[in-house]
Design a protein that fits this description.
The protein is of the alpha/beta class. It contains 8 helices and 7 strands. The chain has a 7-stranded mixed sheet, with helices on both faces.
Length: 236
């Protein structure tokens, strides 16, 4: 989970005992050297899949962190590129990597945009939202898009119950629930609270038309099913 240039175990312990915002402020300078950053392989597969739906005008990276999603937006969008996150530390890192982007500090559950973007993307942040918060979050993205605008994000296939990864993720979520039951402030980060069918229903409930496509560049599992799907939520 770590590299020699990434955060130490002590750094990670301090992060997880902080609030989500404070934790990411602390981790920001080393975040891109952790496995938590979305891989370039997944970013490139997403960008390739979105080419068929573009080009786009203005693009927004929701929960942008250090700006990994800008790698997707820049070749697809002809207009302005913006990112929004609530961690000042993460935005500082994004500003260094993408000095031409418009970066806004805000809680994405109350996005400060109305009808300004043609494409919105998000990567690796949905574990920070409890299921009850998803409708508010999705409604904010819906408002931020122009009519016909697209909200796109990847969702990985869940690991099988018989796999090692299933039990690792289940164990992590159980530990986080225990931590949040006995320690304040809470640190919301769960791996198994974003099932595709529930997400589709929440998106449709706020007015999106929802489709999915397989991310073929990300490969398929042994049974032929895609390892990852791209959710395409379009504002009518």
């Amino acid at each position: 989970m770590r590299s020699s240039e990434g955060p130490s175990l002590r750094d990670l312990a301090v992060q997880v005992l902080s609030s989500v915002e404070r934790g990411y402020d602390l981790l920001a300078p080393r975040f891109d050297r952790t496995p938590y950053r979305t891989s370039d392989r997944l970013l490139d597969a997403t960008a390739e899949a979105l080419r068929a739906y573009g080009p786009f005008g203005d693009g927004l990276d929701v929960c942008c962190g250090t700006g990994a999603g800008m790698r997707v937006l820049k070749p697809l969008c002809r207009g302005r590129i913006a990112g929004v996150d609530f961690s000042a530390g993460m935005l500082d890192e994004a500003r260094e990597a993408y000095p031409d982007a418009e970066l806004v500090r805000a809680d994405v559950r109350a996005l400060p945009f109305v009808g300004e973007f043609d494409l919105a993307v998000s990567f690796g942040a949905f574990g920070h939202f409890l299921p009850a918060e998803r409708p508010t979050f999705f409604a904010g993205v819906h408002r931020a898009l122009r009519p016909g605008g697209l909200f796109a994000f990847p969702v990985a296939a869940p690991p099988r119950v018989t796999s090692r990864w299933y039990w690792r993720l289940a164990g992590f979520d159980a530990l986080m629930r225990l931590r949040n039951a006995v320690w304040r402030p809470p640190f919301v980060m769960y791996y198994r609270t974003f099932p595709l069918e529930a997400v589709r229903a929440d998106l449709a409930a706020v007015g999106f038309g929802v489709a999915t496509v397989a991310l073929e560049d990300y490969g398929r599992r042994e049974d032929g099913s895609p390892r990852c799907r791209l959710v395409l939520a379009r504002r009518a």
